[in-house]
């Protein structure tokens, strides 16, 4: 591949990692609640998991193109359309925009458990398999011409994903703030509102006094 194609491939890999997603949110949570040093364990789990997912997504795609070469161009256009929709959908995903609870419990405690959890999240989630297949559909021509190039692409992809995941570790607050935008408050939002406790209406001010 040309240098421009390599840059485009690596940039696309980093972009997929940086897009809002449950995995990106979870990496940032580990960095906030456990510290950046502990959150670094998530980086190899995400990188190897996404690399494995790339291989799994490539197998049926390569078999389909090999069996029906005429589908190469339609698959490329279909993959491009899906990538654009995926970007738009990522910023509207409910699981990424949900509020972060103050007593949020992380799924794993030990480094090995953290690594395995993130690896499973990347490999066992269909969303990444589909989006990676769509990404690979944009580079079918050079890969089919030089099959050995697939190994180099996978290595570059793993490094690019690791770089993207590291950004979530280094700047967790930016990731969480981007994923969960605070709701806009109206000028009258500071007024006391009615709350219902045990089917009886009480004001927020009374609750503060009672507390």
UniProtKB/TrEMBL annotation:
It is found in: Cell membrane. Keywords: Cell membrane, Membrane, Transmembrane, Transmembrane helix. It holds the Pfam family LysE. One of its GO terms (biological process) is amino acid transport. It is a multi-pass membrane protein. GO terms for cellular component: plasma membrane. The keyword Transmembrane helix applies. InterPro entries: LeuE-type. It comes from the Bacteria. The chain crosses the membrane at residues 6-28, 40-68, 74-91, 112-136, 148-171. This is Lysine transporter LysE.
